Amino acid sequence: MIPEDESPTSTMARALWFATGGESNFLTDLEIIGSGDLPSVFAVSDLAAAAIGTAGLATSELIATQFRDSPAVRVDRRLASMWFGLSVRPQGWPLPPLWDPLSADYEAKDRWIRLHMNAPHHRDAALTVLGVSAEKEAVAREVSRWAADDLETAVVSGGGCAATMRSIAEWKVHPQGQAVGSEPLLHLRIGDPSSRRDWEMSRQRPLKGLRVLDLTRVLAGPIATRFLAGLGAEVLRIDPPWWDEPVVVLEVALGKRCARVDLRQPPSRGLFEHLLKEADVLIHGYRPDALARLGFDAERRQEVSPGLVDVTLNAYGWTGPWNGRRGFDSLVQMSSGIADAGMKELGKNRPVPLPVQALDHAVGYLMASAAIRGLTNRLKTGAGCQARTSLARMAAMLISQPVARTREAIAPETQNDHSGNVEETALGPARRIKPPVVVDGAPLQWDLPASKLGSAEAKWLGRK
After folding, report:
1. What's residue 4's pLDDT?
2. Does domain 104-180+327-346 have CATH number 3.30.1540?
3. Which of 153, 247, 274, 394 sits 20 to 30 Å CA-CA off 258?
4. Domains of the chain: which residue ranges?
């Protein structure tokens, strides 16, 4: 049961659950066990337990809809903290670097700025603006000649990704910070009733027989679909021919089939429409107008697939001047004041981000919760739904939570934390950290290992 005190864990769990439209009586099914905190001036481990617990509650409610009893949900705070980092542990081979060497914080003339260059086209855009080669010393030297805001504007305008480091106070009065602050954690719109799209639910695998179309990139959206796959859903991830996530794929492709489709080509849009028609859930993270420009705005998606549960995210929110800006977790941490607060609180001389990409992970589990609750509502009413959230709004919630001054560190990892099975991933054999949440009678388990992007055909398997 959630404790009656207003700890950050209970406060955030309530906020996330109520954001999805969940009823308060289900909160009594959630138990948080374990102890410890990741090293941060923010309540990161509390957020991890709360976000994962919310997805567990949505699963329990779905099961209760069909089987009358709502299973207990138990979240291990320590394991949740680990899953907010990396869940995979290579067996006998080294894990490649997670970041491009040029993705880093740099000192501009007046303040710090972060350049995100993991994707080749984002790296090329930033280097073009700077007019330098792909050498970190050359990048740092040229950045030092720019005012941070001017460079941020130039890189973003050129198709790249950058974020000036702002304080929490500065972000609160920034036009985009003000816009995000007025948004809900989750924009939720229930669609019109359609013909019921029920499925023969298994209590042990409650999403088995459902199809999830995944149009997301690192990291939040794929975390949502990974959770759905763990409950038995058939997840088909679609990437363009040029996209790759060579290391993160170990995290984000678990339980999925991954195909490549170039949606810019008219024949491929026909294929996409066919896949969408057969989908129960669509999870996407494209910029707000991207699907509309391809002829698939929100109304069209519901026409193609009546009763569709349609869940999406963006980086900087859905209103305000930056609502279409490219962004990633590390950039939102810089913009929103998180990295600045970490630097000041710890007395450091450079930005101090969160120890993990906590905004991505928390948003991922919130999206999974919204998808599952959407399916629950569809069982009851036949209506689909649209749900939207953002990394920046999740940052605002995390910033608002107080943090205890005296905290216990997360206990060191041991072999007992690993699952017993060896997973043959795209990069080699590996083990996973044990799942951080247990829904009684419906354990998380993934039928497919993390495979390479583009390793499967763009089609659904069999019939529901």
Report:
1. 46
2. yes
3. 394
4. 104-180+327-346
